[in-house]
Amino acid sequence: MDEVQQQTVGVSYAPCPPEEFCGRVEERERLGAMLAGAGERGQAVMISGPPGIGKSSLVNRLAYDVRELPGGLQSPVLRAEVFDLPGMIFSAFRGLVGDLARCAASGRFKETLDHEGIREAIRYADDVLEKYAAPVEPVGLLSKSGEEVIGIFARSPEVGYDRVRQAFLELLRELGRRASGTGRVAAVLLEDVHLASALDRRLLGDIAHDLPAGILLAFTCRTGDGAGRFEEIGAPDLVELPLQGMRGDEIRELARRRFGLAIDEAAADLLEAASSDPFSLMACFNALRRRDLAPTAETIADLLAGAPDPAALAFATLSGPYCAWAENLCVLHPPFPVPVMACMLDPEGTGPALVTERLQESGIFRRLPGGEYAFAHPLLQEHCRHALSADAKIALNARAAGCFERSMHRLSGRLHVLLSLACHFFHARDHAKAADLNLELGLRFYHREDYGTALVMTERAVASAEHLGDDALLSAARRQQDLVRRKAGR
């Protein structure tokens, strides 16, 4: 982004580009030591901290150090992200397998990846993960007379959790053998595991427990706000790397390198004491630039006092259509498919090209590797959701459900479509559609032993049936709810 664009829309709230990364010297040294030791023994680290503390930016820098840094390891990096839509079983792990397949096909790491053992392990892991998800992932979608959306499910061989664990561990063993045999270490990076299902957390724990040589596993986890601590992972050698706020010298470096601001010691000390997480600092520095304010301690104190939270300050300094766009899109669950986004922002259907071009310029949205979109930082989406009135929430969820229904023939993520519709129907208070779809999906997740997701879906069906006054449907939903609760131990 050039100087004029930065002045107009600000620096993006997406994870920091590795070339602009500031501070975290001690944390990077610890990660470097783990990388050095991973060749002989697999290493696992959980990067933890409250929202906005810079976990994803540190992962960005770690990926660069492993794969890109001149004179560095020049080793493969597998990376995936967990999103906040319940029911996407092992989608992040499937993303890791796909990332490795693309890395192998690129030909860049031939010495490590150009081997039939790697290709066979990728094919096997991908096949097992696909078969495991088959009972809940539709092979097609069908709208029946515009009244009901159903999934067409395949009858596939039953694949249990043990085969998933065995296939993924064998993939990592083969990757680790090839990497360590060529003097390298492959990095497996997984973000936002606090959003993961119980099954995903179980697999993550098993992997961390039996991590082979040649592999560094790093994952991020939000702490605070009721987020889990992941004691269930139980890996004896798992290292936790908790992130704290930035120090005064790091704050000054961030202001200078990313914003061109000269922050004096008094201003840096104020920010270190009051607002030292990178997200809050970004909001403050963007506000200073947008409003053309001097970065003095007094000005910064007034800025911080004038906003209830950093996300509010971030939106207060935006201009143009971006605030309205954020409000319209905040009810969606990432990753946002482009046709659905275009429909939400442009109901007349003039096309997504202009919308996607402007989104990338906004600083509050980011483009994902698969071409979909998400908010640049989860705190931005959470702020917008909390600010919605009850009526706006209903109207936007109804619009989202309609956009998914109209776009489904162009969408590849069929399970994401069904899960999104189940959520949007419920929050739009379309109780007839919500009850049927959530009850069906709840039963499928029950049989897949994802009892947490099954309970969420079934409880939506119960609530919708109560609103409908349909005694037969309510009875069926409550029977299913009791069944799921017994299995979930609740």
From TrEMBL:
- AAA+ ATPase domain: from which residue to which, for each copy? 41-269
Swiss-Prot/TrEMBL keywords = ATP-binding, Nucleotide-binding
Gene3D superfamilies from the entry? P-loop containing nucleotide triphosphate hydrolases
Q: Which InterPro entries match?
A: AAA+_ATPase, AAA_16, P-loop_NTPase
* Sections of the chain in a coiled coil: none
Key word Secreted present in the record? no
- Single GO term (MF): ATP binding
Q: Which SUPFAM superfamilies does this UniProt record tie to the protein?
A: P-loop containing nucleoside triphosphate hydrolases
Protein's name in the database: ATP-binding protein
Look up and give the organism this protein is from.
Methanoculleus caldifontis
